[in-house]
Amino acid sequence: MSQEADWFLRAHPEITTIEALLPDCNGIMRGKWLPRHKLGKIYDGELKLPKTALSLDIWGRDVEELVFASGDADGICRPVEGSLLPTPWSPNAQHGQIMLSMFDGDGTPYMGDPRHVLKQVVSRFQESGWTPVVAAELEFSLVTWDPDSLPLHTCPSPAGGTPVGGNMYALDVLNQHQEMMEDLRIACEIQDLPFDGVVKESAPSQYEINMHHVDSPVLAAKQIMMMKRLIKGIAAKYGLIASFMPKPFEDEAGNGMHVHCSVLDEQGNNIFDDGTERGTPLLHHAIAGCLNHMADSVAIFAPSYNAYRRFQKGSHAPTSPSWGYENRTVAVRVPAGNHAARRLEHRVSGADANPYLLFAVLLASMLDGIENELKPSKPISGDGYAQEKTPLPVYMQDALTAFSESDFIRSALGGELQRIFTLTKQQEIEEFRRRITALEYQSYLERL
């Protein structure tokens, strides 16, 4: 048994069960529960799962084409360093968790695993002596839900009924969930997650967790996955649903995941900082790369059928490849502030995006822009929605087609990831295509 596993079991005699977690292409945790005495076998490389566990659809169903093509072969699941931790929200705190990564039988990384895809992109920065630094703002809705009705807000109007507005930045709304928020903070400390505060967001029942910047995108992606799981677990203890669904309410702002990114050189200097508000040419090249490959990457930024409900004017989700200084109506914003912290903020992704794949396409786009010295369009001042020229895909099929046919995506993420993600999401689209909604009955059943 490894020293890490031995120490963990000695330090936590109360833990009876280990939750072995494998994040799939959807960003959903797959895996197994194992008794504590099996923990050593994970470190010994004895835990196997089908490689297709990474490409199940959103409902957890096989994609038959992938299963038949591979014979449903197993991969070896190895532990991710630093992921063996208690889960304080589990019943009687008797569970621990460990994150897994998938390898082929010969020990090489399986490139259908989003974690390996991101590591490969980051290695390209490292070859240039650069270190990407990322931080995320993660939005979620805190709701109750009866499956026979629509989800309900947890911050209703004081006079009852549906709230008018979301009471943005309201401290009294946070007070309503003070005990839960304190449990969340403590759980973040136990799991060593970079909790940097929580705010009430613009929609009713919507909140935002801010996370510290991290100089390892692979670590940051793991922390986002763990943070989402933690928030859901703590909320469930209080009988609530913490949902990262991009658009849970039709007439309210959706849940996004904004990413801040800068790059350090070998001396620790920010390559985007020139001592002015403008930023260096490298910053502008990176922004141009983001804009150039944004349409091909939308399937990663908006991976669910519901995610495309966010892309509406005035809904705080950008609808075209655009950028500007201190402008929240564009897709890529350059925040004001300390010049040494000069960075870009990517504002397209929904909260449902797989952070490994999100960081991979974002960093690959930036690097392509830098390497090819791409030039961005002029920065937008004022309302970016009113000035859009080339809209992003607003239908899932259009976004997936662009993704599947993109040479950039194939080069950045690899052919295997491009293939399995495309087939997985195509199956999701087909399921929604064959379903008849209540709106269709209301519109057509009697009128036609």
- As a percent range, the share of helical residues equals 25-40%
In one word, what is the shape? globular
How many structural domains? Answer: 2
Distance between the termini: 69 Å
Which architecture of the largest domain would the CATH scheme give at its second level?
A: 2-Layer Sandwich
Query: How many beta-strand runs?
Result: 15
Mean pLDDT metric: 91
Question: Which CATH first-tier class of the largest domain would you pick?
Answer: Alpha Beta
User: How many DSSP H or I helices?
Assistant: 14
Please mark out the parts with pLDDT under 50 across 5 or more consecutive residues, or reply none: none
Biggest sheet: strands, sense, closure? 9 strands, mixed
Radius of gyration, Cα only, in angstroms?
Answer: 22 Å
Reported by name, the CATH topology of the largest domain is Creatine Kinase, Chain A, domain 2
Strand content: 15-25%
Multimerization status: single chain
Keywords:
globular; 2 domains; six-stranded mixed sheet; nine-stranded mixed sheet; Creatine Kinase, Chain A, domain 2; Ubiquitin-like (UB roll); alpha+beta; about 450 residues; 14 helices
Brief characterization of the structure:
It contains 14 helices and 15 strands. It is an alpha+beta fold and 448 residues long.
Topology:
Layout: H1 3-11, E1 17-23, E2 29-35, H2 39-43, E3 48-50, H3 64-70, E4 74-79, E5 85-86, E6 95-103, H4 114-127, E7 131-144, E8 152-153, H5 171-176, H6 178-190, E9 195-200, E10 206-211, H7 217-237, E11 241-243, E12 257-264, H8 281-292, H9 294-301, E13 323-325, E14 332-334, E15 344-346, H10 355-371, H11 396-404, H12 407-413, H13 415-434, H14 438-444
Parallel strand pairs: 1-6, 13-14
Antiparallel strand pairs: 1-2, 3-4, 4-6, 5-6, 7-8, 7-10, 7-11, 7-12, 9-10, 12-15, 14-15
Helix pairs in contact: 4-10, 6-7, 8-10, 9-10, 9-11, 11-13, 12-13
